[in-house]
Specification:
With about 325 residues, this protein is α/β, with parallel strands linked by helices. Helix content is about 50%, strand content about 15%. It contains 15 helices and ten strands. The strands form two sheets. Strands 3-4-2-1-5-6-10-9 form an eight-stranded mixed β-sheet, sandwiched between helices. Strands 7-8 form a two-stranded parallel ribbon. Helix 5 links the parallel strand 7 and strand 8. Helix 6 runs antiparallel to helix 7 and helix 10 packs across helix 11. The longest helix is centred in the first third of the chain and has 18 residues.
C-alpha cells in the first residue's frame, strides 16, 4: 500500500470554516471510500490551538512547526476575513514556512481569498489564478503579474491550484482526489457528500440562471426556469413574450433591462452552457444539437466557437473523462 499523503490546510482567526472543512472532508472521505489510509489531513495555524472562524465555529489546529515543509504533499491556504488573513500573512515564520513548503510540495494553492496570502508571499507571479468573485479586481491590482480568472470555479496552473470561493474548494479538492485515486473514487465521494454535481474548473462561479434570477423582476423569474427546461424548443421573442402576456416590444425592453441580456443572448448562453456539460460527458455535437435547440451541428459549432474561442472538439478533448467528470488545466 502506498504511503499516505500529508495534506496541510492553513487556517487563521477569521478564516472561512468551509474553506477548511470542505477540503478536509473530501480528503478524509477519500480514505473511507477507497478503504485505505490514503491521506493524513492536518489543520494548521501559525501557533496552533483554537482558531476562531468567521462562522461561530472554532477549529483545533496544530502549529506549523509540527510539520516539516518537506513532508507535505498538498498545501492549501484557507480564505476568510481580511484582518485575520493579513495578520496571518504578516507572520515571518508563516511566510518562510509557506514559501519553503510551496517549493517542496507536489501541489500547493488556496481556497477563496487565501490567494491573497499567496500573493503576499510572491507565489502568484506569472500564474493564472482564481479567487472569490468579489475579490478578483483587488487581487489583480495587488498582483498585476498574475492572470486573475474572474470566471472559473478553480484553476490549475502547474503545481498551483486556486479556487474561487467557499464550496468551490470542495470541487477543487475532488479534482485533486480524482488525479490521485481516479475518477471513480472522486465520484463516489461526491455521491457520499450528496453533491448535486461535480463542477469542473471551467464552470463559471455564477450560472447565467442564478445571475439572471437574482436580478430579474417578478414576471421573469418563472420564465427563466421554463426556458432552462425547454432548451430544445422554439424560444423566440414571440413565444417568450406570450408566456408572460406581454407585447414583443415591451417584453424585449423589460427582459433586457431586468436581466442585463437580450432574450436571444440569454437563450444562447443557456444553450451553450448546457452544450459544454454534454461535451464534457463525451457526447457528440450530432447528439447535442437537438437537445439544446439547434437545427444543425454547423450552427451549434459556429456559435460555440464564437462564444468560447475554441472548437467544440477541442473542448471535449480537454474536459472529457471516461465517466463524464474531470478537472481542467485551463478554459
Amino acid at each position: 500500500m502506498p504511503k499516505p499523503l500529508d495534506v496541510a490546510i492553513l487556517a487563521f482567526d477569521g478564516c472561512q470554516v468551509l474553506d477548511v472543512a470542505g477540503p478536509a472532508m473530501v480528503f478524509e472521505a477519500g480514505n473511507n471510500v477507497s478503504g485505505q489510509l490514503r491521506y493524513h489531513v492536518h489543520i494548521l495555524s501559525a501557533k496552533g490551538g483554537a482558531v476562531r472562524t468567521n462562522s461561530a465555529v472554532s477549529l483545533v489546529t496544530k502549529p506549523l512547526k509540527t510539520l516539516a515543509p518537506r513532508a507535505i504533499d498538498t498545501l492549501l491556504i484557507a480564505g476568510g476575513d481580511k484582518p485575520g488573513l493579513e495578520e496571518m500573512a504578516a507572520h515571518e515564520s508563516v511566510r518562510k514556512w509557506v514559501v519553503s513548503t510551496s517549493k517542496k510540495a507536489r501541489r500547493y494553492g488556496s481556497v477563496c481569498t487565501g490567494a491573497f496570502a499567496l500573493a503576499h508571499f510572491s507565489l502568484l507571479s506569472g500564474k493564472r489564478v482564481a479567487t472569490h468573485w468579489s475579490a478578483c479586481t483587488k487581487l489583480a491590482e495587488l498582483c498585476p503579474e498574475a492572470q486573475v480568472d474572474a470566471d472559473a470555479s478553480f484553476v490549475i496552473d502547474g503545481r498551483l491550484w486556486t479556487s474561487a470561493g467557499v464550496t468551490t474548494g470542495i470541487d477543487m479538492s475532488l479534482a485533486m482526489v480524482a488525479s490521485d485515486l481516479g475518477e471513480a473514487i472522486a465520484n463516489a465521494i461526491a455521491k457520499r457528500l450528496v453533491l448535486h454535481a461535480r463542477r469542473p474548473g471551467y464552470q463559471s462561479q455564477f450560472s447565467p440562471v442564478l445571475s439572471a434570477q437574482s436580478n430579474a423582476a417578478a414576471p421573469f423569474t418563472g420564465l427563466i426556469d421554463w426556458i432552462r427546461e425547454n432548451l430544445a424548443g422554439r424560444l423566440d421573442v414571440q413565444r417568450l413574450a406570450s408566456r408572460v402576456s406581454m407585447s414583443e416590444r415591451t417584453f424585449l425592453r423589460h427582459f433586457t433591462r431586468s436581466t442585463g441580456m437580450t432574450p436571444a443572448r440569454f437563450v444562447e448562453t443557456l444553450r451553450l452552457d448546457q452544450t459544454r456539460i454534454y461535451l464534457a460527458a463525451g457526447m457528440s455535437l450530432k447528439e447535442i444539437a437537438p437537445k439544446v435547440g439547434y437545427t444543425s451541428t454547423t450552427r451549434l459549432s459556429r456559435a460555440f466557437d464564437r462564444r468560447f474561442g475554441m472548437t467544440s472538439l477541442l473542448f471535449r478533448e480537454m474536459h472529457h473523462r471516461s465517466n463524464g467528470a474531470g478537472s481542467v488545466t485551463g478554459s
